[in-house]
UniProtKB/TrEMBL annotation:
This is Uncharacterized protein (DUF2236 family). Residues 298-317 have a biased composition (Pro residues). One of its GO terms (molecular function) is oxidoreductase activity. Pfam families: MPAB_Lcp_cat. The lineage of its organism: Bacteria, Bacillati, Actinomycetota, Actinomycetes, Streptosporangiales. Residues 296-317 are annotated as: Disordered. PANTHER family: BLR2777 PROTEIN, ER-BOUND OXYGENASE MPAB_MPAB'_RUBBER OXYGENASE CATALYTIC DOMAIN-CONTAINING PROTEIN. Residues 13-245 form the ER-bound oxygenase mpaB/mpaB'/Rubber oxygenase catalytic domain. It comes from Nocardiopsis aegyptia. It comes from the Bacteria.
């Protein structure tokens, strides 16, 4: 049996293990909130308003398990997610219509908002990805869609397909009062009890939230109107995103892991054992493993060398 859901040589590992994923995850939540029905499901059924950080950490756990968890672990998590979704329903106050959380349209939107946010943010932050690798990532994530109850054929399998989906969906997106409030929560979230020791450092979160907002498509930022649009904002956002990534990369892994739930860290520890048994060198952690197995040598051409800012919005441009 394969030791992890996604192989360490996959583009999924290259993207999901990058520390700019904190910005990507928050951006995904902000983008998802633009769907007027999806945000009602979150608003009415989840603890997002009281614990938006908890929702982000749960998303991080799902991403972790469906990346380097064991197939058995990922299947069990997927079954729990599907079981919870089957039991939940909510009413759209704008139409009075009753919706199930596991409706195909809603699941596809959440999936595509996440995939596009993860891909665009990490690429813009400086992760070197060729055009072929970007397509491969979208295709690899089609398997992840199965864990929430979708078929791989339900979701885009390439960047052009993903771009067409987002273009087709955009007319149905809008900023509701709940969506705007959700963005405000994400810019200044409540610190969960398990991370109470970080409360004095809460102001350090704002750059992460502000960067997540700044990396949204221009039309989405203008619609939200939560933060001002500044001249040269796009270039500044890219430079800041790269600086934040560089700073996070300097944090030793033992301290960085304190940000995650115990279950997420435990899953990573178990993955290390499986990879060691499979013949991988993991003594220096996943990031060192990734660097040896995934990155091209300096002489190999890429579409976005680390010292050259990549094009903005590879999906939504």
């Amino acid at each position: 049996m394969q030791p992890t859901v996604a192989a360490p040589e996959s583009v999924t590992w290259k993207i999901h293990l990058d520390r700019s994923m904190w910005v990507a995850g928050v951006r995904a939540l902000m983008l998802q909130a633009l769907h007027p029905v999806a945000i009602q499901g979150v608003w009415q059924l989840s603890d997002f308003r009281s614990d938006p950080t908890g929702r982000l950490l749960r998303t991080a756990h799902f991403v972790a398990v469906t990346t380097y968890g064991s197939p058995v672990e990922a299947d069990a998590l997927g079954e729990r997610v599907r079981r919870v979704h089957r039991a939940l329903a909510f009413t759209d106050p704008a139409t009075g219509r009753r919706h199930r959380v596991d409706e195909r349209e809603l699941l596809v939107w959440v999936h595509c908002a996440e995939v596009s946010s993860y891909l665009e943010t990490t690429y813009r932050a400086g992760v070197p990805l060729t055009s072929r690798e970007r397509d491969r990532y979208v295709d690899e994530q089609a398997r992840t869609a199965g864990y929430v109850g979708l078929d791989p054929t339900d979701v885009p399998r390439s960047v052009p397909d993903l771009r067409r989906y987002l273009t087709r969906t955009r007319p149905s997106l809008r900023v509701t009062a709940e969506a705007r409030q959700a963005v405000r929560f994400l810019l200044w979230p409540r610190v969960p009890d398990r991370l109470a020791w970080l409360a004095p450092f809460k102001p350090l979160w704002f750059p992460v939230g502000a960067l997540s907002y700044a990396t949204l498509p221009g039309w989405a930022r203008r619609a939200y109107g939560v933060l001002p649009e500044l001249p040269g904002g796009e270039a500044a956002a890219t430079a800041s995103l790269r600086a934040l990534r560089s700073t996070l990369n300097r944090v030793p892994e033992r301290y960085y892991n304190l940000l995650f739930d115990e279950a997420t860290v435990r899953s990573a520890d178990e993955a290390r054992e499986r990879l060691l048994e499979a013949g991988y060198e993991v003594a220096n952690g996943f990031r060192a493993l990734r660097a040896r197995t995934l990155f091209r040598p300096p002489s190999a051409p890429t579409n976005a060398p680390p010292n050259v800012p990549p094009p903005r919005d590879p999906v939504e441009a």
